[in-house]
Amino acid sequence: IKLTAPEDLSNHILARLVFDFMDLYPDIKIDLFSTNSYLDFQKRQIDLALRIGKLKDSSLIQRKVADIEVIFVATPSFLRSSRPLKEIKDLKGSPVAVIKNLLGEPLNQRLYNLIDPVFSSNSIPLVKEFAKESKGVATLPRFLCEEELRKKELVQVVQDELYAQRGLFLLSPPTKFTPEHVKTFKSFVYENLKSKLLPS
User: Exposure string (b/e) for 20-49, b if CB count within 10 Å is 16 or more?
Assistant: First the structure.
């Protein structure tokens, strides 16, 4: 089975699911392309892909798995030295780092203009490091900082507003015949990702 998915999703959640699946079906081989680039299904002979955001004008079959929330977080250390950050307007003048897409565009242009960030990047690990180093507030997908939130190493600020909410889609090529092992893997990934990403 050939699968492609964004790097952060692959490293944080998908790898565990793939290994769990391989334990259940040891005879099935999996080839995972971990990349933020869009790969050609036909050229790479890809069976499945996970992508954030719905593709426009695509012949691929797109099944929504869940919505990914991008929230505002900071360390308790930073917050102790900061004025209260309860609303978006409170972030103006504060050091904020935000995620941009591969084209260098903000995920939320309206809030980007209101916040006036001091740092932005398409690298989520870099934006996360900005927060963990207590440099300021960062925008991060909730699933990528759940452990830090649970341990109170990071705290969600501006809780009534999301920086972005984007759908995670499972993509597959349009075909009349899908091998049974690919169907089994597709169902396994869909159900397990949904349970991990949706709020409990």
Answer: ebeeeeeeeeeeeeeebeeeebeeeebbbb
